[in-house]
Every structure is written in structure tokens, then in C-alpha cells.
Design goal:
This protein has 411 residues and is α/β, with parallel strands linked by helices. It contains nine helices and 16 strands. The strands form three sheets. A six-stranded mixed beta sheet has the order 12-11-13-16-14-15, sandwiched between helices. A five-stranded mixed beta sheet has the order 5-1-2-9-8. Strands 3-4-7-6-10 form a five-stranded antiparallel beta sheet, with no helix packed on it. A hairpin with a 5-residue loop joins strand 1 (24-32) and strand 2. Helix 4 crosses helix 9 and helix 7 packs across helix 9. The longest helix is centred in the C-terminal third of the chain and has 31 residues, at 306-336. It is elongated. It starts with a helix and ends in a 7-residue tail after the last helix.
């Protein structure tokens, strides 16, 4: 009996020790701002880590040790060209990341960023690369770089104790307890009717009907939380629309509009993602019209130093723009499979500086369902069945986007 109690006590102690040792997990290792001379390494973490970053030579590599941590990931994907391979290892309570490089690495900046705007803890490193020089023999190499001499290599046996995992194709577990949040933004409203069609129909009426149709289809899947920026005929400033998306921690923001032009023959669906440089003059003029209700853009990073603010904003905007463009292409591909939907003859995916798309942490698109200034297209957009087919295609794009959004990486 005493032996059984001792065994149970030891077992409980081991569980307790294990829980302490692994205080955090590595969520991902990714890269940004990569060039031949430098690269940015970002490690996403569940908790604030204790860490050590080393740049080693012969062979050249960056080594990151995270104490009291483990890896939730099994491999490192999509490495920039100046990296050979990436490996993950575990030695007791220390999680190790090894990034082999072609050229000699040198860390220029290391920052630990607190959770912000939906992002977890991040360890950010800017690494420069010194090009390797060809030498006649090892003696010349050591003479030019004494630090490469064998006697200078510190404790190689300690490094060998790290057991490196082999990459496995097994999919990562996905948390099922949180549904993706999608915000549908019906353009215009209230005293702002938007475009006025041939028959006198208002853009604000068409957009609200479409938003409710998309919501209805998405709710039937049971996979998402759907939020509408407006459910009635009310006016909402553009800044408030994107701020609403940020406040509900949206994973995707879709602003719905219908276009108008002086050319009565113009017709077809198009989709926009953010760019301060418009793809053409028409896109620029459209953005100017839509932005009339906007107020000054602002992002509150609290008391963070300016250097940290710049990196936070750079990382957020890069990821958001990539995901927005990735989703836009999904929508275009689905609509091409729906022949009844008229598409813009060229450049269906377009770019402009829409104020409503400027939330730096929410992937956002603006869809123009068609032209109310075209009598045939206006008739289609007033039709529930036509809009339903368009809504079905957009929902299919959403269904394809979320399982693959990790492919819209930061390079």
C-alpha cells in the first residue's frame, strides 16, 4: 500500500514538473523583408520566452534557444533563398531552432514584441549576411577569419545533444472552439445612397440585400460568426466600419458595393485590395469617391517606442495585404466558374487606396458587384436569384480561403 502511494505521489510530481518546464510553445517560424543581404526572422510564441540567439559559423547558421518551451509545429515552411534548411529540436525543456545559411549571419537587431492587435508574443530578429569568400585552402580561410579555427568552436558536444526532429507531413491540429469572424459591410446607407441605377434603385439598398444573402448562406454552414456593419438604412463613417471589424476581432472583412460610370456599356464584377498606388485612373477615382466619408486613419500602439511601432505596423500590414490578395484571387477563381455572373473584361482583381480597407490587422476586400449605370446589369443586381449565385461563389471562396490562409505568407 505504501509503495502504491509513493508511486502515485512521484507520478503527480512528474506531471507538475513537466507543466512548469514547458511554459510556452513555438507557434510558427516565418520570414519577412528578405533580400540577398538581410532577412527578418519572426518566431510566434504562446508565452513570453526566455531566449538566446546565436550566429555560428563553419557551418553558418542562426541558432535560437527558447527555454522552458516546446514546439507546437513540426517543420519550418517557405524559407527565403539565403537560408539552406530549417530544423527544430528539443533538449529537455529547451526548444531549439536551427536555420542553416549560405552566408555568414550577423544579428543586427533583436526585439521581443508583446501581444498586439490579435498577434501573439513575437521574437523578431533582423539578420545581415556576409558573403562567403573562396580561399585556396583551409589555412588561408583560418588566417583571414581566426574565429573559424577549430579550437575556437565552443562545446560542440553540447550542441550534438540536441535531437532534431525530422519534418513530417502530418497536419497541425486546429482549434475548434473558436469560429472565424467575418464582417460583411454593406456600402453606403442613410443620407448616403451611393450610386443611383437606371431605374432609380439605390446602391445602399442593393448592398444591404447582398450582405444579408451572404450572411444567410454562411450561417447555414455553422462554421462562422457573421457580423454586419449595418442591418438597416443608416449612415456609418468609413473609419467606424473598419474599427468595428477590429473591435470584433474579424478574420475577414468584405465591403460590398455596386459601381457606376458615365460609360453605359461598362459592366462586370471586380474586387479590390488595398494599395496606396491605384492600378489605374478609374480605380483611383472610385477610391476618391468612396473615401469621402472617411476621417483620419489612426492606430494606437500605446506607449511602445517608435522603433517597435514601425516593426509592428510593417509586420501587420505585410501579412494583411498578402492575405487580402490571396482571398481576392479565391473569389475571382470561383466567379470564373459561374458563367452567369458578368466579370470585368480585364483586371478583375484591382488595387486602390480605399479607406475602408486600411485596418492593418484585418484581411479586407471591397467587391464591386457590377455597374448600376448599365441597364442590363442593374436588372441583374436587382434580382435575388442573380445575387444568390454571386453570394454562393463568394461563400465557396471563403470556405477555400481559411484552410489555406497560411499559404499567404510574408515573403
Amino acid at each position: 500500500m505504501i509503495l502504491k502511494r509513493l508511486t502515485a505521489l512521484i507520478f503527480l510530481m512528474l506531471i507538475s514538473i513537466t507543466s512548469v518546464c514547458f511554459a510556452g510553445e513555438t507557434l510558427s517560424v516565418r520570414f519577412g523583408n528578405s533580400s540577398d543581404q538581410s532577412s527578418r526572422i519572426i518566431v510566434d510564441l504562446t508565452e513570453k520566452p526566455e531566449y538566446k540567439v546565436m550566429t555560428l559559423q563553419n557551418p553558418s547558421r542562426v541558432v535560437i534557444d527558447l527555454y522552458k518551451s516546446s514546439h507546437r509545429i513540426n517543420q519550418i515552411e517557405k524559407m527565403p533563398d539565403n537560408f539552406k534548411t530549417g530544423r527544430l529540436g528539443q533538449n529537455g525543456s529547451t526548444a531549439r531552432i536551427v536555420l542553416d545559411t549560405y552566408d555568414i549571419p550577423e544579428t543586427k537587431k533583436i526585439l521581443l514584441l508583446e501581444p498586439n492587435a490579435g498577434y501573439p508574443w513575437r521574437l523578431v530578429m533582423d539578420v545581415n549576411f556576409n558573403k562567403q569568400v573562396a580561399y585556396n585552402d583551409m589555412a588561408d580561410l583560418i588566417e583571414a577569419h581566426p574565429q573559424l579555427a577549430p579550437q575556437e568552436q565552443k562545446k560542440p558536444e553540447q550542441e550534438e545533444k540536441i535531437v532534431l526532429r525530422q519534418p513530417t507531413p502530418e497536419p497541425q491540429p486546429v482549434q475548434q472552439d473558436q469560429k472565424k469572424v467575418i464582417v460583411l459591410d454593406a456600402g453606403h446607407g442613410g443620407q448616403d445612397p451611393g450610386a443611383i441605377g437606371i431605374s432609380g434603385v439605390y446602391e445602399k439598398t442593393i448592398t444591404l440585400s447582398m450582405a444579408k444573402q451572404i450572411r444567410s448562406i454562411l450561417e447555414k454552414t455553422g462554421k462562422y460568426k457573421i457580423k454586419l456593419t449595418r442591418e438597416t438604412d443608416v449612415f456609418i463613417p468609413l473609419y467606424n466600419r473598419r474599427k468595428f471589424a477590429q473591435n470584433v476581432k474579424a478574420n475577414l472583412f468584405i465591403s460590398i458595393h455596386a459601381d457606376s460610370t458615365k460609360r453605359p456599356t461598362a459592366r462586370g464584377f471586380s474586387i479590390y485590395t488595398l494599395s496606396e498606388k491605384a492600378s489605374d485612373k478609374e480605380a483611383e477615382k472610385l477610391a476618391e469617391r468612396e473615401n469621402k466619408a472617411d476621417i483620419v486613419d489612426g492606430i494606437d500602439f500605446g506607449t511602445q517606442p517608435k522603433e517597435v511601432q514601425d516593426i509592428l505596423l510593417n509586420l501587420a500590414q505585410r501579412e494583411t495585404k498578402n492575405k487580402s490578395a490571396f482571398f481576392a484571387e479565391k473569389v475571382v477563381n470561383e466567379l470564373k466558374k459561374t458563367p452567369v455572373i458578368s466579370l470585368l473584361s480585364q483586371d478583375i482583381h484591382r488595387f486602390a487606396g480605399f479607406a475602408v480597407l486600411k485596418a492593418p490587422d484585418v484581411p479586407s476586400v471591397l467587391v464591386e458587384m457590377g455597374f448600376l449605370s448599365n441597364k442590363y446589369e442593374e436588372k441583374n443586381l436587382r434580382s435575388n436569384s442573380y445575387r444568390e449565385k454571386m453570394a454562393q461563389a463568394i461563400v465557396k471562396a471563403i470556405e477555400e480561403y481559411f484552410p489555406e490562409e497560411h499559404k499567404a505568407t510574408f515573403n
